[in-house]
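Appendix C reproduces, verbatim, an entry submitted by the partner laboratory led by Prof. M.T., so that reviewers can inspect both the input and the predicted structure.
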Amino acid sequence: MTMSYAALCSDFYVNAKLTSRMELPRSREPVLELFERIKREYPKMAAFRRYKDELALESGQDDVPHRWMAIRSHSVRTGIVNPETEDQIHDLHRSAAEVCPYYLSISPLDVESVEILFGFDLAARSNHDTIVASALLDGSPLAALFDLPNATVRECQPLVGLTLDHGLHASVEVKTRSAKAGAERPDPISLYVTVRSTEPVTDLKHLPARMDMLAARGRELVDTLAVPALLIPLREEIASASF
């Protein structure tokens, strides 16, 4: 399935986030010890970077797949860009769920939420909002807006939030960007499918299994809804708009 995702978009990525209620330690010892532990498992993640609001460990920008981990005041995030195999999609996320709580002193009571995001980027040179409106709203009741005299689409970024089960929520979002004149590579239209669990964690040993559950539910939404109903129509509209 990974290869079929890659064939449908410019970039495919999967991010995970563990959010804590209390502020996470960002002092030298726990952060460096955690990053060293992750680096031993993923040797190409060797670049330690400081940004305004986070500390990050990353692989090289040209590495495929590209992996990263970032620590903010109340969250640990991980990501993989363009995984090449099924095993690569969630291996870093599972590793983070297993070790981060112990290095960063996160207790079960401290876990506010856990989430997985599936992201798809589609490079598009034409007006993003027009593409989204034509691909996803044409033929719907909302399409009547396009028939208003002298009206042009200024913004079209659909976002739908869902409650799947108690403590389990999902969102599907299409994100557009303004075209930059003369840009060598156009900015992408992005499709995000996010599944989040706010169910209390009773034991840190259950975090990897929770990640697996979120990944499975996310893949179900991606395969049954996002790809056929959103990604493919967007891709086809981009192709037709380029001629």
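The mean pLDDT is 93. Additional entries are available on request from the coordinating office.
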